[in-house]
Amino acid sequence: MFSQTDFFMKRIRSDRSGAAGIEFGFVAPLLILLLLASFTIFDLFRAANIADKSTFTIGDFISRQTEVTDSVLGQAKAMMQRLARNDVGNPQIRISSVMRTSEGFAVQWTYNSENGELSKSKLDIRHVPDIAINDSVIFTETIVKVYPFMAVSIGRNNGLFTFEHRAVTRPRFVGRIARR
């Protein structure tokens, strides 16, 4: 009839006491991966938001000046370095005073914080809104490079994200900010 071995095997097959632990063992790595991925996405959104707000802050700082000197622009560069999270080098800044003439837009002066992508590229006037003739604006551009919490080495940038932001601000107290 039934041997002791058959009885033992039948009892093991019908025993469900460890099933939850085994199922958790299968699901736990996926849950941990989802948790880390959601934290990484949050970290990227946070870094992009900080870089965007820093760009507007620098533009607002310059717009409150009546004239800019190298020391004021150096303060703007130092402020950007403190405000924005940048995992590779320093954030790049280009601040330009753009005036509209009857022929189109004219760049009055430009400041580049360092030799980088912004200093090598031309100023893209398409991002300046339509303004009145003889009116001027401060056009601030920044590039911030960030490695997220879980930087996955995919592609040529090895997980590096580059955030480019632009801000256009009108001078507050004068019609045009002069550079000395």
Spatially, the strands of the biggest sheet line up as 3-2-4-5
Percent of residues in helices comes to 40-55%
Structural Rg: 28 Å
How much of the polypeptide forms β-strand, as a percent range? 15-25%
- Into how many domains do the coordinates divide? 1
Principal-axis shape equals rod-shaped
Low-confidence stretches: none
Termini separation comes to 105 Å
Give the biggest sheet: 4 strands, antiparallel
Number of strands: 6
Count of helix runs: 4
Q: Pairing-aware structural class of the strands and helices? A: alpha+beta
Mean pLDDT: 88
- SSE pattern: HHEHEEHEEE
Describe this entry's structure for a reader:
The protein is rod-shaped and about 100 Å long. The longest helix is centred in the N-terminal third of the chain and has 45 residues, at 19-63. The chain has one domain. The strands form two sheets. A four-stranded antiparallel sheet has the order 3-2-4-5. The chain has 180 residues and is an alpha+beta fold. It has helices spanning 4-14, 19-63, 70-83, 117-120, and strands at residues 67-68, 92-101, 104-112, 136-146, 161-169, 178-179. 22% of the residues are buried. It starts with a helix and ends with a strand.
Comma- or semicolon-separated keywords:
180 residues, alpha+beta, four-stranded antiparallel sheet, two-stranded parallel ribbon, rod-shaped
